[in-house]
């Protein structure tokens, strides 16, 4: 039996005391000190950053968008592809000037990239002005770590442990005002897809207690958010480690019961664990978005096996058929990797075939990026970057045509949308989303933001729909 252990309450109490101590010190300064939190990568990182901001706010920091004038800069990093790491390193490099101008500035780097030993080591050696590095499992100890670098004669602090982490309930959360809120339901991943670094940097799967999640969902709704995304690397295995007979469908049902007009979204669903029960729950819960993000990664069975994905092309297509049967208006999106080591041109045709058969509404597409320590990084890869780029371009061309056709089908229909922000474009100044997550540009007063509206769709492109409030 696996455990579900909350971070020892005693330690959280200690962190609270430290936060109060820092807040008192900050309160006695003539001006409130400012913090800047920069987030890379996935929604889970966004959610972690909201907790970092929550703690910073408790410690008396205001927030700024100008990193050069900040007293504390926190960079929350991603490791999923090399490109993400390069961007992070570039940004840390650029901070050296700000640090020269302000020696008291604290620079902290945290998250998935530095959870990898070789990257923490790189920061230690090549970026001497970074004061604090902490891994994904140390997040609840941020106040303590920050306090130790705020001391006079400051020493650099590196806190990266390889534990699977505990779940720290009760951390303060600072969400940006707005319409959408992230709600983590579980952490970590057990799937070890052969290309992926996530299980190494995020540890094993651990689910939050359903009561904690539902309580947080209630407060999110009370605060006025209208669009809640439940987060996990594979939400379909939610609850397995709790041994309480609860699963992800149960969670959706419980959140659906909360009073109020809001949308429930979730990501990500691993195809190997998606079930008819999940689709039926989505169909039966009024607030559940008719959208599923179901990454298939590759269409060829040999490649899928080498990726350790646990399903076949046909298995995937059958699952999609089942989803469409239970939820006829379902919006389907997916992730695809092009150029997995050894994937041939012929095998890649199977990926294109899945696109043609499923007709996804939109797609997130990636060229394979070798990740140190993963099995795929050691597999022979005879194809060049140009070979992969050529395939990638074909993939985009096909998907763009499908997205454009699917969007065109909306023209003339009236759909309910949630208005979520401004576009900066005079002709269609507001952005909104259908329940299925399609972007709709409309015209109207800014006080429509946060409201549900019926919109008649008048036009479409590959990327978006255009409409008029009716
Ligand atoms: N848990 C989620 C994915 C998290 S990573 C899931 O299983 O769907 C998000 C996406 O990044 C993955 O779906 C995959 O398409 C892509 N990705 C992950 N590792 C990658 C790598 N090494 N190279 C290229 N793309 C990768
Ligand atoms: Fe990575 Fe696979 Fe886990 Fe997703 S399910 S995070 S792709 S290992």
Structure description:
It is a single chain. The protein is of the alpha/beta class. It folds into 4 domains: 9-159, 3-Layer(aba) Sandwich (Rossmann fold), CATH 3.40.50.12160; 175-263, 2-Layer Sandwich (Transcription Regulator spoIIAA); 290-407, Transcription Regulator spoIIAA, CATH 3.30.750.200; 414-469, Nucleic acid-binding proteins (OB fold (Dihydrolipoamide Acetyltransferase, E2P), Beta Barrel), CATH 2.40.50.140. 37% of the residues lie in helices and 20% in strands. The chain is built from 14 helices and 19 strands. The chain has helices at 9-27, 43-58, 82-101, 112-115, 117-126, 142-150, 198-202, 210-222, 248-256, 276-284, 301-307, 313-326, 345-358, 385-408; strands at residues 34-39, 62-63, 72-77, 106-111, 132-134, 157-159, 180-184, 186-187, 206-207, 227-231, 263-267, 291-293, 331-338, 362-367, 414-422, 430-434, 439-442, 452-460, 465-469. The strands form 5 sheets. A 6-stranded parallel beta sheet has the order 2-1-3-4-5-6, sandwiched between helices. It has a 5-stranded mixed β-barrel with strand order 15-16-17-19-18. The protein has a 3-stranded parallel beta sheet with strand order 7-10-11, with helices on both faces. α10 packs parallel to α12 (313-326) and α13 packs parallel to α14. Iron/sulfur cluster binds at residues 189, 191-193, 196, 198-199, 233-234, 270.
